[in-house]
Amino acid sequence: MSLEVDVDHARESFHLVARFSAAPGLTALFGRSGSGKTTLIDIVGGLIRPDRGRIAIDGAVVVDTERGVFVPKHRRRIGYVFQDSRLFPHLSVRSNLLYGRWFAGDGGTAANLASVVELLGIGHLLERRPDSLSGGEKQRVAIGRALLAHPRALLMDEPLASLDEARRAEILPYIERLRDEAGLPILYVSHSVAEVARLATTVVILTDGQVTAVGPVADILSQAEESEGGSVLEATVARHDEAFQLSVLATEAGELQVPRLSAPVGAAVRAYIRSRDVMLSLRPPEEISALNVLAGKVAAITPSANGAQADVRLDCNGAALTARLTAKSVQRLALAPGRPVYAVIKSVSFERS
Amino acid sequence: MTPEEWTAVRLSLLVATTATLASLPFGIAIAWLLARRRFWGKSLLDTLVHLPLILPPVVTGYLLLISFGKRGPIGAFLDEQFGIVFSFRWTGAALACAVMGFPLLVRAIRLSIEAVDTRLESAAGTLGAHPFLVFATITLPLCLPGVIAGAILCFAKSMGEFGATITFVSNIPGETQTLPSLIYTLTQIPGGDAGAMRLTLVSIAISMVALLGSELLARRIGVRQMAA
């Protein structure tokens, strides 16, 4: 299934223009607050009627202003997971989960409930009331509730924003499973690079209401925002070093040591490395505290707008890594495309995946 | 208590219950309109609903008499088309009580509907619930304490309604002589003091039971909704 969006919506001083399509997998809508991310998914979900545009799920048109089509939200079958879970306080967790199924009106209930409960690990919560759940549990129930309404697409508006770091870590694996197993397009609003790097298949960048970039996560994030540039490395967990509480990841570029992950050996993970956390050295650095040093060659140098800094893109055995250096360092090291260098990465700069 | 007094008490309970139950659906509908919709003439409707609260009850009763009386435009129509007669019947007393209690009913329900988070309603919508079902399954259960409070207020108002009732349907023993009307009658005749006092005590007892009952009910609903 796929989701096609092409809309135009003006509201006071703000103008949203967005056109993209989301394939199965997770499409992250990424941008600063106020860039129009929530407005955009509210339009997709039917909470806002756009001034102009067309939205189709798997070819079925739900909005087409030219032909006067506007399918109301209760007939769109688009699941929506809100930032503030919005569980119904007067219903038990079980009734909350089954609420949408009432209206979806098809069979296979028990099996479905069981599989969603299993997927999200909420079996022990079924008879409880929403207000007795932790923030992380609430969000998992909210995700389950949206799934059980048999949606054709799933919208998630910063589902982790109101949670602390530990609760986020608790939910992220479930969202990953959802992305890999549910087989429906997920539109995921976020302003966290870490979340996007970890979860997204495709990234749509919104800046002041305009789509400024669309593409695979690895290509897009490195050019995302000046201050937030970085690289994504696909990796697998090679082994765990229990003595030092570290995990060793195997990547195309070489091995990386990161703080102990919960993922098992062999699991695929993504490491996100911010450009500013990468230092370059012409010789193999010795006797330094950083654990991770990758060898590579300079592929390209892009000076920043004011010329004070430059993004140096490296080719590390086929994997791309970007380092942000001052223009002075670039000159001092006489960096130029083709020059072999060593990239020093502080292990703390890995996004836990 | 004399048989006459018992009749008045029974009649009052019947009139108040009928008035409350019959006006409840309309009260909920209008409270929802006022709480959740924007439409032309909304403040007019709001004023109209509240009018019985500020008009002298006798004026309300008189307006009912000239519109719902046998020769009044609405009364005549209802009589001819459906055989429904209000004038000088207990149903007329119930109508007068419903009109007088309506502002209290609507006000309490409106406030509690406004307190229901609209974000929950739109969440229910995205789960496939038609707006009517969203109201029935989300809004109504969540504002139930307010609905009960409104109904009790309306019932209490109906038990005590005097001015509009006596103006509209008079003071006919066994038909329209409610508890307050009989107390009034008893105070007008020599030796009626004892009866008036008995009815006063009955009136106080009924009011207290109604209030306590609503407290208990509201608390039970509250507990069910907040339960851990």
Keywords:
heterodimer; A: 353 residues; alpha+beta; Rossmann fold; OB fold (Dihydrolipoamide Acetyltransferase, E2P); 2 domains; 6-stranded mixed beta sheet; 5-stranded antiparallel beta sheet; 8 helices; 23% helix; globular; B: 228 residues; mainly alpha; MetI-like fold
Task: Give a topology summary.
The complex is a heterodimer of chains A (353) and B (228).
Chain A: E1 3-11, E2 14-22, E3 25-30, H1 37-45, E4 52-57, E5 60-64, E6 69-70, E7 78-81, H2 93-104, H3 109-120, H4 135-148, E8 153-157, H5 165-181, E9 185-190, H6 193-199, E10 202-207, E11 210-216, H7 217-221, E12 230-241, E13 246-251, E14 254-259, E15 268-274, E16 278-281, E17 292-303, E18 309-316, E19 319-326, H8 327-332, E20 340-345
Parallel strand pairs in A: 3-9, 3-10, 7-8, 8-9
Antiparallel strand pairs in A: 1-2, 1-4, 4-5, 5-6, 10-11, 12-13, 12-15, 13-14, 16-20, 17-18, 17-20, 18-19
Chain B: H1 3-36, H2 42-54, H3 57-68, H4 73-82, H5 90-114, H6 118-126, H7 131-142, H8 144-160, H9 163-169, H10 179-188, H11 193-226
Helix pairs in contact in B: 1-5, 1-8, 2-5, 3-5, 3-9, 5-8, 5-9, 6-7, 8-11, 10-11
